[in-house]
Amino acid sequence: MATFKQYDTKKGKKWKFKVYLGIDAATGKRIETTRSNFDTKKAAQLELSRLQVEFEKNGLQQNAKQTFKEVFELWLESYQTTVKEVTFIKTQIKFDKWILPKYGKMKIKEINVATAQKIVNQWAKTTDQYRVLHSTTSRVFKYAINLGIIDRNPLEYVLMPKRVKEVQQAEKVKVYTKQELKQLFNYLDHTKPSYNNDFNSVLLRFLIYSGCRISEALALNWSDIDFTNQTVSINKTLSQTKNGYKVSTTKTVASNATVILDAATISKLKKWQIDQRKYMLTLGITEPTMIFCGIYKQVVTHHAIYARLITITKEANVPFLGVHATRHTHASLLLDSGANMKEVQERLRHTKISQTLDVYGHLAKETKEKTVEKLVKHLEL
Questions:
Q1: Alpha carbon distance, N-terminus to C-terminus of the chain
Q2: From residue 182, how far is each of 33, 178, 186 by CA, in Å?
Q3: N or C: which end of the chain has fewer CB atoms below 10 A?
Q4: 68-157, which class in CATH?
Q5: DSSP state, 107?
């Protein structure tokens, strides 16, 4: 729709018009423009007709020239409002590391099935995340369809390759043996009393006996511990953001749960609550709310714990198995003690038992084999 208006100038009366041309397919914004200084209304109408035709042509050309990266940036702006910040950051990393180097400079209208097939085939040779990368990329093409830039998503017609697994198969989770745990706890119990040493001792005990994720433990407050009923309420996690770390909600509903703790761990926590206050009072600091914070009540990150574990395991003469080893060891101990896979799932707060089986299925098999060995040794026939 256009509006025409006559107006006065020093050189006499002139005509101008204002027109709404449509919606920009890329940005979703209204496109309006004004033209003026026409001697007659007919001249203004002729310019309007020319402008509308030009816009229609240029609009098509603009869409044809848009790169994958340009559409991705529009999609990312909308996507950011739908997910947690930590998920947004991880998605950005996928695009920066894997997707944009392949698709970024290509004109999105020129990307075909053959090109997409070649890319996913290359990914399948280098990473077991190729399916995730493919589906994540597909979101941008679906968004381009919604904008009217393309008519179909070429990624939907790609044949998903099967990645040839290497001889060693999938890497098994690493767990500490009972002897290694004894060495680890013995070392921690005999370190010189200090805020950090006591912190390390309590945290390692809590992680191994609760099965809690490190990011969840570092977000815990003293109010989350029920000393009477010997439980801990897990309902938050320490997440990394662009502006540092912050406490946020857990990723899944299943992660929120009340976990029962053993008496010895509860006793250690009680002592730590008293000792933590004493250490802080020497610096004039009072009323700590977080269980596992720094002496100045600052947040302690999982990166810091990673560095500490390297030192602790070296001093204790046990192997460093990574930051997830405490949770994996907890699952292993549960299975060794006779727990079934469903009980392990509930204890670890996995959404689906298939997730538990995928990670710990081989541990269950090893436990059963040990049971048979015990039977044979017992009979001694």
A1: 97
A2: 77, 6, 6
A3: C
A4: mainly alpha
A5: B
Q: How far is CA 290 from the centre of its chain?
A: 24
Please tell me the distance from the alpha carbon of residue 129 to that of residue 123, in angstroms, as a whole number.
Answer: 8
Convert the pLDDT of each residue in 200-254 to its tens digit.
Answer: 999 999 999 999 999 999 999 999 999 999 999 999 988 877 777 888 887 677 7
Distance of CA 233 to the CA centre of its chain: 22
> Whole-angstrom Cα distance, residue 368 to residue 371?
5
Q: Looking at mean pLDDT, say which of 78-92, 227-241, 244-258, 347-361 comes out highest.
A: 227-241
Cα atoms in the Cβ-side hemisphere of radius 13 Å centred on 169: 3
Output phi, psi for 196, to 5 deg: -70, -40
What are the sequence ranges of the domains in the chain? 2-65, 68-157, 178-376
Q: How far apart are CA 264 and CA 31, in angstroms?
A: 69
List the beta bridge partners of residue 14.
Answer: 7
**Residue 165, pLDDT score:** 56
Task: Say whether pTM exceeds 0.70.
Answer: no
Q: Give one DSSP letter per residue of 321-360, joined into a string.
A: --TTHHHHHHHHHHHHTT--HHHHHHHHT-SSHHHHHHHH
